[in-house]
Amino acid sequence: MLYYSVKIIITALLIVLISEIARRSSLIGAILASVPLVSILAMVWLYVDTGNLEKISTLSTSIFWLVLPSLALFICLPVLLKYGLNFYLSMSLSIVVTIICYFSMIFILGKFGIEL
Which has the closest alpha carbon to 53: 44, 66, 62, 63? Predict the structure, then answer.
């Protein structure tokens, strides 16, 4: 239980740190947020938990393919905000579009024999 608490605290601290830095500097916050910290943490925690390099390799490959559809959020959100939609509606619609892109990517990859 202590191990899970440490994982949660470290992960939460990084997210809070990035959001606090972003309040002071959008550029530095964006740089830190764009670094795949969640992916790195997931791979580190997976390695510590299992030591299974094959699982880490598979996770890394899946992350690569799913980064592409995740970019839809960062395209849709500013466009919707510029059209005057409120933040919560813009965020919700951007998430829906991103989910559709995820399913589309998984479907397309499946057609090429790539299973995630």
Answer: 44
Instruction: Judge whether 44 lies within some domain.
Output: no
- The domain tally of the chain equals 2
Q: Kindly report the pTM of this predicted structure.
A: 0.76
pLDDT in tens, 37-96: 888 988 999 999 999 999 999 999 999 999 999 999 999 999 999 999 999 999 999 999
Q: Which two tokens stand for residue 38?
A: 């969640």
Residues 76 and 112 in one domain: yes
Q: To 10 degrees, what angle do helices 87-111 and 53-82 make? A: 140
Query: What is the residue range of 22's domain?
Result: 1-35
